[in-house]
Amino acid sequence: MWMKDDEKSRLVAMTREEFDAMMVGKYPKIFSDRNKPMSETCMCWGFDVGPGWHPIVADLCEKIDAVGKKFGVVAVADQVKEKYAGLRFYHHVIMDDSVPHIETELPVSQSDYDVAEGIIDDLVSHAEGESYRICEVCGEYGKTYSKGGWLTAWCEKHAMENGAIGKPVTDEERRKAIEKRSKEIVKELYDNDQAIGTVLEGKKLPIDKVPFRVVVSVIESATRDIDNEE
Ligand SMILES: [Zn+2]
């Protein structure tokens, strides 16, 4: 991400409320669910990230808004939060019927939609990946630190101020921590006959005999569940 220093400082200095109001005002379509009830969207919680990540979120939204306008789609945000020291920008892409395609002036074709969705997903993944190396407090270059088992992205100064002791957590350590939790969830689901039992049409196999593809699909949904755990 590239951004002018003064623009970056301006965004980092904003309070959560100021940032929220600015983003919702600037991107009403992306944040159309912002004020919907908790029963409909997790976007009701607002922007659940530290000020150091305001520039990443602002930059991401500028890009996905531009892609959306070009292709006639909208990436509607479902939740913006920090999890395991990384940004999560959950969203879904819808056709924007109010805007004809900028060049053809026709409604969006399925292939345009697919291309746009792919670009938006890539932009989101990139921003999420970048966040691990950006201090959530000040926006300076940082790393993932562990404090009492909680992972947070901090620069050296803020890691020390927050009492995070020791070396930063490596990507490998973070991956292992998430994998460990995924396995625990798979085990819980298996023991409770949920998910795995359903996929196998009620036939309960010993856990080591469960087909690999089933475990993978359960882990994929479990990882999503982990993200949604509070
Ligand atoms: Zn910092």
How does this model look, in words?
The protein has 230 residues and is of the alpha+beta class. The chain has two domains: 127 residues, no CATH class; 61 residues, no CATH class. The chain is 47% helix and 14% strand. The chain contains eight helices and five strands. A three-stranded mixed β-sheet has the order 1-2-3. A two-stranded antiparallel sheet has the order 4-5. α3 runs antiparallel to α4 and α6 packs across α8. The protein is globular and about 55 Å long. The model has no long low-confidence stretch (mean pLDDT 83). The site of zinc ion has 9 residues, from α5.
Characteristic terms for this protein:
alpha+beta; 2 domains; three-stranded mixed sheet; 8 helices; single chain; 5 strands; 230 residues; binds zinc ion
Structural class: alpha+beta
Number of strands: 5
Would you tell me the overall average pLDDT? 83
Rg, alpha carbons: 20 Å
**Main sheet attributes: strand count, strand direction, barrel closure:** 3 strands, mixed
Count of alpha/pi helices: 8
**Ligand list:** zinc ion
Poorly predicted segments: none
- Percent helix, as a range, is 40-55%
> What characteristic shape results from the CA principal axes?
globular
Order of helices and strands: HHEHEEHEEHHHH
Please give the structural blueprint.
Layout (H helix, E strand, L loop, with lengths): L4 H8 L3 H11 L20 E2 L5 H18 L1 E11 L2 E10 L14 H22 L11 E5 L2 E5 L1 H6 L9 H21 L4 H4 L12 H17 L2
Helix pairs in contact: 3-4, 6-8
Bound molecules: zinc ion (ZN).
The site of zinc ion has 9 residues, from helix 5.
